[in-house]
Fold this sequence. Notes:
The complex is a heterodimer of chains A (479) and B (117).
Chain A: E1 2-5, H1 9-21, E2 25-30, E3 45-48, H2 58-67, E4 72-74, H3 84-92, E5 96-97, H4 102-109, H5 111-120, E6 128-132, H6 135-142, E7 149-153, E8 163-165, H7 171-186, E9 191-195, E10 201-209, E11 214-221, E12 225-226, E13 229-230, E14 232-235, H8 242-258, E15 263-271, E16 277-283, H9 290-297, H10 301-309, E17 323-330, E18 332-333, E19 339-340, E20 343-344, E21 347-349, E22 356-360, E23 367-368, E24 375-383, H11 386-398, E25 401-403, H12 409-417, H13 419-422, H14 430-433, H15 443-446, H16 462-466, E26 472-474
Parallel strand pairs in A: 1-2, 1-4, 2-3, 4-5
Antiparallel strand pairs in A: 6-9, 7-8, 7-9, 10-11, 10-15, 12-13, 14-17, 15-16, 17-24, 18-19, 20-23, 21-25, 22-24
Chain B: E1 2-8, E2 11-20, E3 23-28, E4 31-36, H1 38-46, E5 50-52, E6 57-62, E7 69-70, E8 75-81, E9 84-89, E10 94-99, E11 106-107, E12 112-116
Antiparallel strand pairs in B: 1-2, 2-3, 3-4, 5-12, 6-8, 6-11, 7-10, 8-9, 10-12
Amino acid sequence: MKVLVANRGEIACRIFKSLRQEEMQSVAIYAPDETEAEHTLMADVAIALQGERPYLNGEQILSIAKENKVDAIHPGYGYLSENAEFAEQCLEAGITFIGPSAEAMRLLGNKAKARALAESQNIPVVPGAQACQSVEQAQELAQSLTYPLLLKAAAGGGGKGMRLVQDAKALPQGFAAAQHEALNAFGDDQVLLEQWIHPARHIEVQILSDGENVIALGERECSLQRRYQKIVEESPAPGANDELRQKLFDAAKTIVKAAAYKNAGTVEFLVGPNNDFYFLEVNTRLQVEHPVSEYCFGVDLVAWQLAIAQGAQIDFEPQSNGHAIEVRINAEAPYSGFLPQSGDVAHLDWPNHPFVRIDTGVREGNQISSHYDPMIAKMIAWGDTRTQAIARLKGALQQTTILGVETNQTFLLDVLEQEFFTQGQTFTTTIEEKSWERPQIDEDILAQIPTGQGVHTKSSGQQEQASPFTTLNGFRVGP
Amino acid sequence: MSWQVIEKDGQKIRVAVHRDKRGTWISHQGIVTLVANDSGRQKSKQAENIIEAPMTGKIVSIEVEPGEQVEEGVVLIIMEAMKMEYRLKAPIAGQVDKVQCEAGELVDLGKTLVSLK
Lengths: 479, 117
């Protein structure tokens, strides 16, 4: 089989590794500014894309696929991976789209439809979550719920335009503001009102389906987030007992079967303080944090995606072993609101440890630019126990050197050392509820390094105060 | 970039050091510190009238025009990054001198967006 990878960065590199191991031919596509990017150099053939936002240009990608006589397209995550129209166009062109059918994607990709499907299968969903046209309608819906409530843009995602409402008195004003934000951000002023689940854990189930057999490859807890984006992911979930785990697996399998879903996918749930759980959504693709499950179950999920696309049957009982944790190393300023950073990766040195995996698409000398995702790498460690996995991950992070662009490396290390983390007390709001202080290099060590300041006398903590972030207001509302 | 070996209490410690226009980056045991250059720090103090991109992201809209008089705290630019919106406000009152970005543009950290006078 000859496979074109319609993606870039670490995930394209990840897929090329499996293609090589499965002895399949590979085709890379690359944007004009990525002629020497890592993913460009990993395939048998690399074809240049043209124009703006080229990784989203399905038409161009399909014509490259046809010219190069590829059998299948792997979309990775993001870009065209959840685009049902593109999946359909692949099918029409006689090219296998490595993912679910367009129908399954349309059904599960639409939040309202997916929610209705879950409800029809008696899977709990977050109470409320109905579109309200007016304050009056919101007030009526609010009567069946318990404050605090959450308002969010119907067309939204990624936490944008979310707003927490503490009581009935605050609803009218909150509703108007949410409507305004939704209109500004998405050009659509529809607002949803729903029950706020707090404290909540984010737990998701990795499923694999060949169309007939559906298996759950464990769950992943991804509660630790900043700006509604995950930064630490692990399996098994510290916040799940066997009873809850089984319920989540059953619910995930049920919804996937009901949608006639084929391929790898992830069913996401919110878990409340009393082990109450609520279906959130299905991600109809390979997920960023899939290596965590690969480590625990000893499987290559990409290889399975390729096999299923070729008609293979799932013929094994999933067996989990040990514990795996992933951290996402991003070019960002964690002590200044996690703002994305850019610049040249002047120095990059990864450790080489047993039981530590590093998935990256960045090499030393590469530029982290505003055109792409600021993720530099994923670092994943496995251990017999959670404690051992944490120790291995910390050890690897300590021996990583990334200089020239600010990253969250120091912050991640700090998170792994916190008591809430070692005790598994991880919730979606944990990161933002805590105040964080940048750990500093030992003064005695700093004093021996010549810097631009001549002799270094005091740690540079004041840098943060002098930065322009004091004049910056993110609209960051809700939980 | 260079590796420097220093000694502390009899222990030999290897530290990674990199110097660029922002200052000296030092990495040891996973902790990274950027010691800003003297010159860099002075510049940022003098340049209150220059509004630079505080992050990598997209310009959503420009709320002011050259020549316009603005109060301190007035929103000049709306930027977007990581699916969130940020409002860049005037750090001081003044007149908008130049606008050096366009709506829809992707900008890198540190790019000058607006200058006041």
